[in-house]
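Progress against Task 2.4 (sequence-to-structure conversion) is shown through the following example record, which the project officer requested during the mid-term review.
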Amino acid sequence: MSNPEELGARVFGARIRARRKFNGLTLNELAVRAGISRAALSKIERGEQDTSVSNAMALSRALGVDVGELLATPEVVVTPSASIVGHSTYGAGTWRRDLPAPIENMEVVHYRLDPHCETASFSAHRSGARETFFVLAGVVEIVTIDRTTTLRAGDCAQAPGDVPHQLSNPGDRPAELMLIIV
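Structure tokens generated for the chain above:
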């Protein structure tokens, strides 16, 4: 498929299928909820059949998603490495890069900590904030008021972001982690 209409049908169908599976619905269940035939839905999901605006709206309602999400042109946004500035204002031996966030009210941060270094203490984020830590290399400790949590390469942890905290590397090798704040 090479023309834009065929590509649009494939993308639309793939998004319908992905959302249907995410919602735990069978093909039959979604077809009934949307008021279209199972055969038509199957063809739509495979990108073999265009659909009407009314069917697109019915599918979006049945899936609980805005029709614009299903119809939007796929977009890949590339930020060149040179545009992602790193800085070390978070403590000696620490390096931080704030990466472009895919959605509003989300921060994506890449940290590198030299051996036996720690960040300065971070203030609490807004009430209800959550943080996800994923260690890429080495050992990282998340230090909060009441505990120290140790993570190793490949470990992932979620924690409240609305309490003061800091990161440290107790190891003899550099540590790297990704931090997502929502």
